Structure formats: structure tokens, C-alpha cells
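Whiteboard transcription, Tuesday session. T.W. wrote the C-alpha cells on the left side:
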């Protein structure tokens, strides 16, 4: 079934409008009571996704403590900031930066420590230091230093343990998927390669329970793009987009783009896990004028310059609608197509055929069919459809159908699976537990 035909059979579930903010917070709270299953720590993908966080998101985590500005030698002896050392290890070795961050916190509390000792930094990952080893042992000094610790740990997990498991089914002769092994007097049977590799690195229950606790605190509740979050008891609302939180600085800006009934209340810790993204300062389709007098039409995250003030007035806009902005404001946006005298409906409108009630969204000379009136209500709540003859609609070029906006829940009448719309696609929610954990 194509996405187009699938969307035509989906009915949005506006659950968020039916749940009070207090209930939402209560539903999310259980995600902070961590369930530790010694047989399954994280997925193989969680261990090996080098793009799980981008460079700026890694820096966001490091800013919690001393490592935010920490500069030292990498494994090759070049002076690098901690964020670059972690990023390089992730990219060149193929390990998730999330894993490296959690390991740094688990081993030496380095992510959240404002004043770590030289000993903590030099043995950041505990690499090369066995339970009975002395850190002054001459044989392990080759691994001394933050850069060497991060790089060596990444290599050991990926090119060492995982490579062994892929080739032989186990590493160190005993850690492998489906192979029972005794850890601290308890029999553990790793469910996957990632779990086996983590036990090979830290052969203790408590250490790996700490790993899972930190992982869940930082990464267990990750809201999909399109989610609207606010901290309980605070006023600010944020759009989650591609792993960043974008502050929405006015109620009018929020209403012009989103449904406020979709706002989810979360804890301050949950929101703090997202790096800051570009703020949303103005309502969609605002008319903005910079210091040089150039006028723009704001369309989502791009500024469309008007070809001239004559074009601006000819379309029907007035000077008292202009909002003054600075050149710095302009630089934060992409510059879109120029609005000229030939631009059709730059702010968009809804047309309904008089013959069969088919509904279209038209803008810039293109027509986009809307397969269900519900989609129109969700995507364009402030627009009223205007009746149009087929000949009027046919003057617009055909373009892709309008999809359900991000942030909504949808399901088919034929199956119990619930989906969340995120980044223009529908993503199945894995279970009822996951569903309720997101509020």
C-alpha cells in the first residue's frame, strides 16, 4: 500500500485534547523508574549508530560539566576539544556517541562533574584498569589520557568484542548472544551482541545496571519530531525537531503552526536532554522587514523576499502589517523563492470543487489534493475552503498530496497499531507501554 493510499484510510486520534495536563505528566513519570533486565542492556543498533547524536548535541551534553570546555590530546597527540575526540571516535570507529557519553558518566561521572580530578580524566573510561590493577602499573600507562581512553574503548567494543562475536559467536571465550555466563553469582544470558560486549567490558551486574540507568535517564524517552513539549508549571513551549528543542516565543506563533491541544508536559530533566535549536519567533506568514527595507514573507523556516514594495502592495498587503527585524534575524533563515507579480497565492488557500467536493490546497501555482477533510482541519485550521469550478483548479499544476502534520496519532480501522506522524512519515508505536510512556 502506498503512503498516499495508506493516509486515505487513516483516522487521526486526537487523544491529547482529551487528557488533562496533570494526567499527561503522570503517564510520563513511569519512564523514570528504570527496568533493568540483565539479559538485555541496549540494542545492537544503539551501540553501533555513529549518527545517534550530531556534533552540537554531543557538545550540549558536555556543557553540563567540566568537559564542555576541556581541551587535551587525542590518541594521536593532537590538541582537541573533548567534543571532537568523542565525535571522531564515533565516526571513524562506528560506535554510538550516546554509548561513549554514558560510559564516561558510568566510569568517572565526567559528564556531570564540574571539577574532576586528573585521575578521573586520565582514566576516563576505566580502559586497561582491571579490578585488581593499580593505575600506576607501568604496563597500562600507554592508555593514560582522555583521548586514548575514549579511542581505545571504542576500538575495544567495536573492532574487538563485536568483531569477535560476529566471527566466532563469542568474545573472551564466554560472552556471546544466547550463551549463559555467571556474573557476580548470577547467570546472565545476553540477548544480543551489544549486551555481550558490554559485559565483556564490565563483567559486573552493578556496573551495567548503572549503564542502563544513565542510558534511560538521558535517552529512554525520546520524543519524535513534531512533538510539542513544556515543563510542568512553566510557560515555555518547545517544538522537538530532529533531536533539538526549538523554543516557541509567542502564543500567536504557536497557534499559526500547531495545535496547542498536542502539548505534552514533561519533566525538566527530559527537556534538558535536547540541545537548543532555532527559536520560532514569528507567526507563520508574517511580513518582516529588515534594516535595508527589504520585505519578506515568512513561510515555515524560510524567508521569501518580495521583488519590490510595489509587488508587496499589489498583492494586497499593507505597511502596518510589517514587523521590523535585524540582519541577524534574517541570517537565521533560509532565503526562499522571490515573490513577484506572477506568484499565485503566496500565502495559500483551500479550494473545494463544486462538482464533487474534492478539496485542494493551492499555493505558488501548484495544487495539492487533500484526501480527507480531517487532514485539512489539522493542517490548515485557520483556512476556510472557497468553492471553485474545475477550470479554476486546473490552472494550478498538480503536486504531491497534503499529509497529516507531524505530532498527530493515527490508526487504521483495520488494525490495532497506532502510529505517530513524524518528519512527514508514520512511525508505528511498538507497544502499549511505549504509547503511555510518551503521554
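and on the right, the sequence the group agreed on:
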Amino acid at each position: 500500500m502506498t503512503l498516499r493510499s495508506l493516509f486515505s484510510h487513516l483516522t487521526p486520534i486526537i487523544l491529547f485534547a482529551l487528557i488533562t495536563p496533570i494526567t499527561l505528566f503522570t503517564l510520563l513519570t513511569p519512564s523514570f523508574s528504570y527496568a533493568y533486565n540483565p539479559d538485555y542492556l541496549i540494542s545492537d543498533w544503539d551501540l553501533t549508530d555513529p549518527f545517534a547524536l550530531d556534533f552540537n548535541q554531543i557538545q550540549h551534553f558536555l556543557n553540563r560539566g567540566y568537559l564542555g570546555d576541556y581541551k587535551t590530546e587525542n590518541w594521536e597527540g593532537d590538541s582537541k576539544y573533548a567534543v571532537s575526540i568523542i565525535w571522531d571516535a564515533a565516526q571513524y570507529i562506528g560506535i554510538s556517541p550516546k554509548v561513549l557519553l554514558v560510559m564516561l558518566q558510568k566510569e568517572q561521572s565526567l559528564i556531570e562533574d564540574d571539577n574532576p580530578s586528573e585521575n578521573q580524566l586520565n582514566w576516563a573510561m576505566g580502559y586497561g584498569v582491571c579490578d585488581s590493577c593499580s593505575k600506576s602499573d607501568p604496563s597500562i600507562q600507554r592508555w593514560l589520557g582522555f583521548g586514548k581512553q575514549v579511542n581505545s574503548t571504542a576500538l575495544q567494543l567495536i573492532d574487538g568484542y563485536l568483531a569477535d562475536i560476529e566471527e566466532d559467536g563469542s568474545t573472551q571465550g564466554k560472552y556471546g548472544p544466547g550463551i549463559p555466563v555467571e556474573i557476580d553469582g548470577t547467570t546472565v544470558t545476553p540477548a544480543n551482541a551489544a549486551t555481550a560486549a558490554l559485559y565483556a567490558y564490565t563483567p559486573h551486574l552493578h556496573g551495567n545496571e548503572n549503564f542502563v540507568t544513565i542510558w534511560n535517564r538521558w535517552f529512554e524517552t525520546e520524543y519524535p519530531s513534531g512533538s510539542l513539549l513544556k515543563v510542568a508549571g512553566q510557560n515555555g513551549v518547545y517544538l522537538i525537531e530532529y533531536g533539538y528543542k526549538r523554543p516557541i516565543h509567542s502564543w500567536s506563533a504557536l497557534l499559526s503552526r500547531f495545535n496547542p491541544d498536542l502539548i505534552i508536559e514533561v519533566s525538566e530533566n527530559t527537556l534538558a536532554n535536547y540541545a537548543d535549536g532555532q527559536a520560532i519567533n514569528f507567526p507563520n506568514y508574517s511580513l518582516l522587514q529588515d534594516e535595508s527595507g527589504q520585505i519578506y514573507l515568512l513561510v515555515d523556516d524560510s524567508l521569501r523576499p518580495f521583488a519590490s514594495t510595489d509587488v508587496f502592495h499589489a498583492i494586497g498587503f499593507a505597511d502596518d502589517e510589517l514587523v521590523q527585524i535585524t540582519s541577524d534575524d534574517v541570517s537565521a533563515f533560509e532565503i526562499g523563492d522571490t515573490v513577484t507579480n506572477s506568484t499565485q497565492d503566496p500565502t495559500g488557500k483551500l479550494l473545494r470543487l463544486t462538482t464533487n467536493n474534492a478539496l485542494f490546497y493551492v499555493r505558488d501555482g501548484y495544487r495539492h489534493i487533500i484526501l480527507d477533510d480531517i487532514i485539512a482541519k489539522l493542517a490548515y485550521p485557520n483556512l476556510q475552503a472557497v468553492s471553485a469550478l474545475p477550470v479554476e483548479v486546473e490552472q494550478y499544476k498538480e503536486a504531491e498530496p497534503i499529509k497529516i502534520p507531524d505530532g498527530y496519532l493515527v490508526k487504521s480501522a483495520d488494525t490495532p497499531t497506532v502510529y505517530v506522524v513524524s518528519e512527514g512519515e508514520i512511525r508505528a508505536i511498538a507497544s502499549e507501554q511505549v504509547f503511555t510512556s510518551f503521554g
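Someone added at the bottom: Confidence is low (pLDDT under 50) at residues 1-34.
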